[in-house]
């Protein structure tokens, strides 16, 4: 049995590495991370939130912007960034900054999509501006939010696969 649980590790002084295996082929998982209509179905953390704005210009130099909303009280959180490197469906490198910045500035995010036996391992490395910024993120509810989103994605990947046939 494959352990598909999200794994998060603090690496060196400023990085966090997140990894999760998905039971789907690499091109579908890559699409789920890069196509707005697919992202809106799973990329919103815990239940009770939604991804209200999802703008993606998927090209080197292209920008993205996300706005999440907590449905109960209208609280919003937003971030954006610029794609720096793109090798579909294998690798994405982009910058990222929250508009109400709580991570002490821009981060550099590298996401790898590695296929193996019909599954895809997604590994995301986030480089923060300081150890303090990294540690603040580790103490936040980020891990539970990412895990909830990834679990939701795992549940709907079969539907996404059926829709793309």
Automatic annotation (TrEMBL):
Coiled-coil blocks: none
Family: Belongs to the AHA1 family.
The protein's name in its UniProt record: Uncharacterized protein YndB with AHSA1/START domain
Organism listed in the record: Pararhizobium capsulatum DSM 1112
Superkingdom of the organism of origin: Bacteria
Origin organism lineage: Bacteria, Pseudomonadati, Pseudomonadota, Alphaproteobacteria, Hyphomicrobiales
Domain Activator of Hsp90 ATPase homologue 1/2-like C-terminal residue range list: 27-157
């Amino acid at each position: 049995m494959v352990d598909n649980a999200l794994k998060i590790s603090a690496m060196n002084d400023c990085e966090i590495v997140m990894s999760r295996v998905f039971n789907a082929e690499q091109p579908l998982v890559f699409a789920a991370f890069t196509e707005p209509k697919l992202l809106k179905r799973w990329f919103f953390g815990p239940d009770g939130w939604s991804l209200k704005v999802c703008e993606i210009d998927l090209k080197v130099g292209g920008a993205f912007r996300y706005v999440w909303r907590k449905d109960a009280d209208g609280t919003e959180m937003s971030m954006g960034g610029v794609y720096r490197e793109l090798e579909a469906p294998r690798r994405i490198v982009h910058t990222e900054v929250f508009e109400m910045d709580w991570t002490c500035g821009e981060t550099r995010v590298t996401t790898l999509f590695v296929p193996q036996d019909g599954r895809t391992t997604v590994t995301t490395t986030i480089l923060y501006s300081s150890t303090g910024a990294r540690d603040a993120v580790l103490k936040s509810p980020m891990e539970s939010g990412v895990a909830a989103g990834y679990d939701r994605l795992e549940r709907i990947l079969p539907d996404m696969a059926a829709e793309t046939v």
